[in-house]
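Journal club side-thread
Mid-discussion, someone asked how the predicted structure for our own chain would compare to the paper's figures. Pasting it here so we can look after the session.
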Amino acid sequence: MGLIGWIVLGAIVGWAANLVVGGRDRRPQGCIVSILVGIAGAFLGGWLYQLVTGHPRDFGWNFTSFGIALVGAVILLAVLSLFRNAGRRR
């Protein structure tokens, strides 16, 4: 997948992950942050997929790649949210 494809997939995945992890009290992220979260989530999801199955995943435009990237982005946002909430409690 080319650079433009990664940016588009990252934006869609980042937006979807923000909807899954976000709540009423959470502000929506900006476009750039959503793209970065989506791309980082795709890498994290691909790495976890390879770790669990032992097979590398070639990302293309399909629902499996979208799902793996979404799971990675949701995990990333959940971990970041935990750290952010832990810092507010102190």
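Post-session note: The radius of gyration is 13 Å.
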